[in-house]
Amino acid sequence: MKNIIIAVDAMGGDNAPANVLQGLALSAVRHPEASFLLYGTQSLIEPFIKNIPELTNKYTIIHTDTMVSMDEKPSVAIRQKNSSMALAIEAVRDGQAHGVISGGNTGALMALSKLRLRMIAGIERPCLASLWPTLHGECVVADLGANITACSEELVDFSIMASEYARIIFDKKNPIVGLLNVGTEEMKGNEIIKNAATILTEKQSDYDFGYYGFIEGSDICKGTVDVVITDGFTGNIALKTAEGVAHLIGQYLKGALLSSFFSKIGAFFAKKSLMAFKDKIDPRKVNGGVFLGLNGIAVKSHGGADDIAYAAALDLAIDLAKGDIINAIKEKIAQKQQHCSQKLPVTTIENDDIPKTA
Amino acid sequence: MKNIIIAVDAMGGDNAPANVLQGLALSAVRHPEASFLLYGTQSLIEPFIKNIPELTNKYTIIHTDTMVSMDEKPSVAIRQKNSSMALAIEAVRDGQAHGVISGGNTGALMALSKLRLRMIAGIERPCLASLWPTLHGECVVADLGANITACSEELVDFSIMASEYARIIFDKKNPIVGLLNVGTEEMKGNEIIKNAATILTEKQSDYDFGYYGFIEGSDICKGTVDVVITDGFTGNIALKTAEGVAHLIGQYLKGALLSSFFSKIGAFFAKKSLMAFKDKIDPRKVNGGVFLGLNGIAVKSHGGADDIAYAAALDLAIDLAKGDIINAIKEKIAQKQQHCSQKLPVTTIENDDIPKTA
Fold first, then answer.
1. Cα torsion through A93, A96, A100, A103, rounded to 10
2. B30: part of which helix (H) or strand (E)?
3. B261 touches A at CB < 8 Å
4. Virtual CA dihedral for A52, A56, A61, A67, nearest 10 degrees?
């Protein structure tokens, strides 16, 4: 089995490094092929990690006292040399690690990753992709907020990249892609999304995914498609709205089960099943946003992640590294560029034939 | 007490007129001041309604055989003379009713309402507003899909109109308005939303609402504000995503409570509380979208609404009529126009001082 090395920003997140190291322990048991480069304050990491037998001989600590704070502006963070986040990213750039994970400042992680890892040739902007629970399992949703707008071509790029993600994680040969819209009819939506639909319809087979068509918000949880594509503004609001709804229902249910003597008895008998239910809607299990489009795997864990959540994000980084997602995306994007350059002269000739209006 | 007359498209919706008439019965008990003009096929309505004692002397049937089908294009629907939907809307236009309700084709209802009722002077586009459950009760969210884009001024108009809605329904003197965005910091979001924020900050007191600032998707259910404002594309996707999440969690919970012998016993004991829980997340209770910005109250009920859901939408139409929402909005918009025209000469002079670029 191929050895996988993950660079870890051990100082990133609200409870770092404790939650990070405990998360590593959980993931290490599931992934004996993985080892870790830990960037952070040695005196904080070492005493803790020595008491975690699961991690014996699995890690190297690279000491740095500098760290990016959670409320630092990305523009300031990129000027901080030797932060645990920057060094971890550089390990991927320099070929010392297969991927990087951080629970730190999201904006800083994106800015630093873009700067150090650079974009894959042919990709203008990265997108943030994550798993989303559905009636049938999970789907990939992108962009969840790496950008606040997206043009048609970018929505197509997101589709290509998120499909590679889905292919690896779901082990599906031809993932199905849907464009998030306000209705499923072809006439619905703005010009950007309609143009993206036209390109996806035409090009789907070139990139080994199936284009389903437009989907609505309710289709995300239904599991209508494997990959949901939208712009970062809508995607971020959909994600956070969903989190809010799940929390609200959880609070309602808690209130209901504690509301009377009989309901408490009921909750007692149903406890095991209710725990399984809680486990199923546990957002920690789908923790881990991936910045797709970069020349390296960069995974963002929630800042408030505990060990279980952190391990889920780490599992993702390891699985994507095993699936060699970066080369898979590069291959598809190279294909796209070939199509574009082949098409370019034809388009020019056609354009010359069309009389220019205004 | 002021008598309220509601024009009812008795043929609109999947189970019309049965669900419509049963819904009327539920609402009539709660609103003794209300009576109804029923538009539709007399032979279908009359035998049914005669057996509903709650509606005795509360209604007039205006017969028509024409109705707008659920999948009719709005452009076709507006040319159908004498449809039950068109006639019901015209009753509001002609001052015979205080509001109209339909469970029929949404696009047709919006197109016909815009055409027959026309926009309030000073409003360019209507928005679709609806109640949304929160930890503290409910909030108003707009636009839920009347438009697919919105400029800054339109987001401000939506804020003014939806605040009047909130003032009446929540009986709050100064409702709090938030703009839905991808973060709460001032620098977040696109130019449209940032400009809207600037205008709202400046003008909030003129319109008797408080501007909270940017909110995130998770704030909707938290009940951070009374009024959530967004463009129709994002709002529609947020709404449908939320519906999908609620359905998914409901399915998970059902599965959990039926998964074992003990969980079934638990569900039996907790039945009453679980029913109350189900009732609380029941989307029927917040049924009823209102097209704000029209010269009349137009309420859309879900097409698949049963009697409880239909009655909720009808309650809303009656409450908004009692609160005289149309005149409340007109007053605020007239104020806005006064501000604009007062400002106009100043702006023109300033503009002349600025050298034109490009």
1. -110
2. helix B18-30
3. no
4. -30
User: Exposed (0-12), middle (13-18) or buried (19+): which is A352, by Cβ within 10 Å?
Assistant: exposed
User: What is the value of ipTM here, to two decimals?
Assistant: 0.87
Which structure tokens are listed for A244? 């809010």
Q: Which residues 177-206 in chain A show a CB within 8 A of chain B?
A: 180-182, 189-190
pLDDT band at residue B272 under the 50/70/90 scheme = confident
Non-local (6+) Cβ contacts of A306 within 8 A are A15, A19, A22, A23, A284
Q: Please judge whether A273 and B252 are an interchain contact, meaning their C-beta atoms are less than 8 angstroms apart.
A: no
pTM for this entry: 0.88
A97 closest CA partner among A299, A329, A307 = A299
CB pair distance less than 8 Å for A238 and B217: yes
Report yes or no: A147 at the B interface, CB cutoff 8 Å: no
Secondary structure class of A313 (helix, strand, coil): helix
- Strand bridging mode A137-142 / A127-134: antiparallel
Alpha-carbon distances of A168 from A34, A150, A209, A332, B128, rounded to whole Å? 17, 25, 13, 14, 41
Please, which residues bridge with residue A214 across strands?
A179
Of A244, A262, A269, the CB nearest to B217: A244
B76 touches chain A (CB under 8 A): no
pLDDT tens for chain A, 358 residues: list them.
589 999 999 999 999 999 999 999 999 999 999 999 999 999 999 999 999 999 999 999 999 999 999 889 999 999 998 999 999 999 999 999 999 999 999 889 999 999 999 999 999 999 999 999 999 899 999 999 999 999 999 999 999 999 999 999 999 999 999 999 998 888 889 999 999 999 999 999 899 999 999 999 999 999 999 999 999 999 999 999 999 998 888 888 888 888 888 888 888 887 877 777 777 666 677 788 999 999 999 999 988 889 999 999 999 999 999 999 999 999 999 987 665 544 433 333 333 333 333 3
Could B249 and A246 be called an inter-chain contact, meaning their C-beta atoms sit closer than 8 Å? yes
Cα(B350)–Cα(A261) distance, rounded to whole angstroms? 71
CB-CB neighbors (< 8 A) of A234 in chain B? 233-234, 237
Q: How far apart are CA A297 and CA A195, in angstroms?
A: 29
Residues in chain A: 358
